[in-house]
Specification:
This protein is of the alpha+beta class. The protein is built from 14 helices and 24 strands.
Length: 502
């Protein structure tokens, strides 16, 4: 661990028990030109006149540390060689402990004007609106230190975490018991801890996951460039170390259009837990979580979903060991769709989790270990569209797929048409154009029926002029009208003019 000597402003390296008492700085990064770097301090190229803006945080930290009779400070911008990926990974995995073991933590709020003493929301306090409370990394910097003090941009003391706990609780939604360490972080459910990070931002997408490692007591290798995969890896690491299925309660209390993902066992970001601030663990049975290839094994009570607008009839609900704090008998149920005997898929798009009395259907729904698929798909593709018509060899046959009805089902770049899955699946109409200029177009009507185990495709081929409008043909042509209502009857009367089959 590198520390800055408060007298010389030089970096010194310490290991293990040899680390001396130190102060640690928490702040928000400004423009790169205004921040000191590891190289600036390492090479001792600082000039108090030329680098005045850069030195505000270093000078203030060192001066305050000296007042507190501390010989060293730690500042993230200066003490980590970010060009060394191994060192960066070690620092990120160790950072929560570094803040926890610091003798003092100074929070420098560069956007709170000097002299401001009002921290009430009612008067538009700059303290309430400070960027520091919106930053991803500052969450662990708020929770980890035992002693924490807030300073304005002039390095004047605003107050300690204890003195300002009421205001901080209003800003962050974090209960005072966890802010002040009366309760350990492990006593908050996973969903609740995730909710504290909802809405916070980081400069790099991966950092929203990396900044939460210490809060959940897990470690991960850093892989910058992996994007959202970092948050998926974080959830998997949590499940390997914590027996708390509230990690599956994401989406609770949110509107369907607020969810960032449509499918999969895991959330896509902490914002999916925004409604979980009051979700607590209810250990009425011992939850079991196990990551396996492509799936999550979990023991749940599973029963038929209730009728209502939030879930579709025929779906299932999985009962979790967590629920709203203000209702001791209520627990969270997640919506599921059965794929096979013991395999389910979470059906999240348009159906967030519900709170229900845990006594409902338990006598008819014994606890069982089931598998929930982890695979995810983009929210702009309906979860029911799990099958596709793929147009192959059209170039070799001198044909070009130029139009599809309905147009929203066509994935043009991939030459694919999205289909439904049930017996009430709709028809799709594809227009294929031969390369010869004088030829008519071929129209192919397609319909997928059945389920995964017994798929069936119905099809019908006819010709049309190149000038014919596809939508009007579909709505008004008597042959296609007959298809929509009764293919069987059409087969009896239409074989002389068209080709139809399964």
């Amino acid at each position: 661990m590198r520390l800055i000597n408060v007298e010389t402003w030089k970096l010194e390296y310490f290991l293990g028990d040899a680390i001396p008492p130190y102060a640690i700085l928490s702040h928000t990064w400004g423009n790169d030109a205004d921040e000191l770097t590891f190289r600036d301090v390492h090479d001792s190229v600082l000039d108090e006149t030329r680098d005045a803006r850069k030195l505000v945080k270093l000078k203030g930290s060192c001066q305050q540390a000296k007042k507190d009779k501390l010989g060293y400070v730690w500042i993230d911008t200066c003490c980590i060689d970010k060009a060394d990926s191994v060192e960066l990974g070690e620092a990120i995995n160790s950072m929560f402990q570094w803040y926890n073991k610091a003798s003092e933590c100074y929070v420098y709020l560069s956007d709170v004007p000097a002299g401001e003493r009002d921290v009430s929301r009612e008067h538009g306090s700059k303290f309430f609106s400070s960027r520091w409370f919106q930053r991803g990394w500052s969450l662990q910097e708020l929770l980890a230190p035992k002693r924490l003090r807030f300073y304005d941009q002039g390095w004047e003391l605003l107050g300690t975490k204890g003195q300002m706990a009421g205001a901080i609780e209003q800003i962050t939604g974090i209960p005072r018991a966890f802010l002040l360490g009366w309760l350990g972080l492990h006593e908050a459910s996973v969903a609740q801890r995730m909710s504290w990070a909802a809405g916070r931002v980081t400069k790099r997408k991966e950092d929203i996951a990396y900044s939460l490692l210490g809060i959940f007591g897990v470690m991960m290798p850093m892989i910058y460039g992996e994007g959202n995969q970092a948050f998926f890896r974080l959830q998997e690491a949590i499940m390997r170390g914590v027996r708390d299925d509230s990690i599956l309660a994401w989406g609770f209390g949110m509107q369907p259009n607020e969810l960032e993902t449509s499918k999969g066992a895991l959330a896509i970001s902490p914002s999916d837990f925004a409604g979980c601030k009051n979700i607590v663990s209810r250990q009425w049975h011992s939850p079991f979580l196990d990551i396996m290839a492509g799936g999550l094994r979990v023991n749940l009570y599973v029963c038929a979903a209730p009728r209502g607008p939030s879930v579709e009839i025929g779906d299932y609900c999985g009962l979790l060991c967590c629920g709203p704090e203000d209702s001791t008998s209520a627990v969270v149920w997640i919506p599921l769709k059965k794929i096979s005997t013991s395999e389910f898929e979470r059906t999240c798009y348009g159906r967030p989790p519900l709170a229900r009395d845990r006594a409902v259907d338990l006598d008819r729904s014994p606890i069982d270990t089931v598998s929930i698929r982890i695979e995810r798909q983009s929210a702009n593709v309906s979860e029911s569209r799990r099958h596709w018509f793929c147009i192959e060899e059209s170039v070799g046959a001198h044909l070009e797929l130029i139009d599809v009805f309905p147009e929203t089902s066509w994935r043009k770049d991939n030459a694919m048409i999205a289909t439904g899955t049930g017996g009430d699946a709709e028809w799709f109409l594809a227009r294929l154009r031969p390369s010869e200029d004088t030829s008519c177009d071929f129209l192919v009507a397609l319909k997928y029926e059945g389920d995964i185990s017994q798929p069936r495709v119905r099809w019908h081929v006819m010709t049309a002029s190149r000038s014919a409008d596809l939508t009007q043909l579909w709505l008004n042509h008597p042959v296609l009208q007959q298809l929509r209502f009764d293919l069987t009857e059409f087969e009896k009367i239409g074989k002389t003019t068209a080709k139809t089959g399964q």
